[in-house]
Write a structure and sequence with these properties.
This protein is of the alpha+beta class and about 100 residues long. It contains two helices and four strands. A four-stranded antiparallel beta sheet has the order 1-2-4-3, covered by helices on one side. A hairpin with a 6-residue loop joins strand 1 and strand 2. The longest helix has 20 residues, at about 75-90. The mean pLDDT is about 85.
């Protein structure tokens, strides 16, 4: 979607309070909008598009925030070694990515 808004001004805002039953999510992020739209289509009782094409309201019990700890250098190097081996096996077996 082409808009007049600069990328640095395209925010994702999440609003909720401790007593409300819904979380309001307003976003310009295309991937998040698509995921929320698919969720709303599949579970209309829990999520709905409210205003225009940017704002969704989702049942508060269905919303969560996941924080992950940063990888240690040791874990990062082990993951790199594992993926290098996987990619080498794929190349050896002429693996083709699915479309």
């Amino acid at each position: 979607m082409i808009t007049e808004i600069k990328k640095k001004n395209k925010l994702t805002e999440i609003w909720f309070n401790e007593t409300g039953s819904a979380v309001t999510i307003r976003t310009y992020n295309t991937d998040l909008k698509n995921r929320l739209a698919a969720y709303a289509a599949k579970y209309p009782a829990h999520c709905r598009l409210t205003v225009g094409c940017l704002t969704f309201e989702i049942d508060r019990r269905r919303f969560s925030v996941r924080l992950t700890a940063p990888y240690s250098e040791d874990r990062r190097s082990k993951a790199k070694e594992t993926m290098t081996a996987v990619n080498q096996r794929r190349q050896k077996n002429n693996f083709k990515k699915p479309l």
